Amino acid sequence: MKKPLYLILAGISLLGSQSCKKKSSDPEPTATPALVNATPSQWKTLNGQQPLVIGHRGYAGLRPDHTLAGYKLAIDNGADFVEPDLVMTKDSILVCRHEPNIKGTTDVASHSEFASRMKTRKVDGLDVADDWFVSDFTLAELKTLRAVQPMANRSKAYDGLYTIPTFQEMIDLVKSESIAKGRTVGIYPETKHPTYHEDMGYKLTDKVLKVLSANGWNNAESPVYLQSFEVGNLQYARSKSTVKIVQLIDADDVTEDGKISLVAPYDKPYDFAKAGKPETFEYLTTNAGLDFVKTYANGIGPWKPYIISYLNKSPKQKLTPTNLIQRAHERNLVVHAYTFRDEESRLLPEYFGDPHKEYKDFYDLGVDGVFSDFTSTAVAARK
Fold first, then answer.
1. Is the pTM of this model over 0.85?
2. Phi, psi for 189 (deg, rounded to 5)
3. Three-state secondary structure of 107-140
4. What b-and-e string marks burial along 221-247, b requiring 16 or more CB atoms within 10 Å of the CB?
């Protein structure tokens, strides 16, 4: 999720067959069943039940992003939902990748047969240079590639073992795992860069709704949340469907004094930028912005500092939480925050290297769901 294009623009930094042999060098979490819903008195969530744990890109902390193995590992460890980011192939098939460009998440650079397809393209107004793009590959060609771990500080033990799954393959897995585990697991698809796809003639949102319909999941009762950092495609989806919708809310960074930094292309939804609209992501967190979001969405998915910010200097210092969750709940909007990670470098000093403390802060505030790279940690913190 956070941030679009970070693999290309900021570098890969700290900030087919799905079977494989277990690698002893890669620690496995202990499989944990999803918890039974708590009583309303225990939780401050909108529905009074325990917050959802959303497997961010699968189980991104221990497997390459967006693989069937990663989704299954998240489900095995108690994820309530798993998140596929969706882009489209040359032959109009939805596949699960974090971005339209795939140099950072696959082994495409090692495939000499595709060397001539490396190019520079604009995505959200920025040049993405010397990369390969899903829209230049058929599904059959993409299936010859293998996923790799994009973060340099995470295990590479599973690089090269997993193919790129289609959206349908991911849905099939989730449905079969739901049956096997005797509990409903949901999906949380994100339409990646809708304007980019639309400008190339790919009807990304229509295709997502079509696949959901084919699976009986294009309605409000389905275990589905549809999300996007853009607005127009979500408004369009609402005009065509009753499926649950969440508006993602991004930012560039946090300033030294703890304010949200808004620098393009992370200052506003890209369709707003293209249309010359002044409203920013931060505007969507104001009362007027939340009222606007309420006209087409069921909730918001803010970056964590919109809820708990910090002084962005050495040493970092946690600030008093905002009232965003309370104001969203007043409008009957759920709040699903992102992204929670276990690495100490991702945690504020007040948590003393313990990610459970961060989760508990957000759970105590009433967050309705968390996007987590480490499902087992998020589930354990609910106890």
1. yes
2. -70, 140
3. CHHHCHHHHHHCEEEEECCEEEEEECEHHHCCHH
4. ebbbbbbbbbbbbbbbbbeebebbbbb
Length of the chain: 383
**pLDDT per position as a tens digit, 74-129:** 999 999 999 999 999 999 999 999 999 999 999 999 999 999 999 999 999 999 99
Instruction: Give the chain's domains with CATH numbers.
Output: 6-12+27-100+164-380 (3.20.20.190)
- In the chain, what is the straight-line distance between the N-terminal and C-terminal CA atoms, in Å? 26
Q: What is the DSSP letter of 37?
A: P
Distance CA 135, CA 352 (A): 44
Alpha-carbon distance of 179 to 172, in angstroms, equals 11
Q: Tell me how far the alpha carbon of residue 4 is from its chain's centroid.
A: 10
The C-alpha atoms of residue 182 and residue 109 are separated, in whole angstroms, by 41
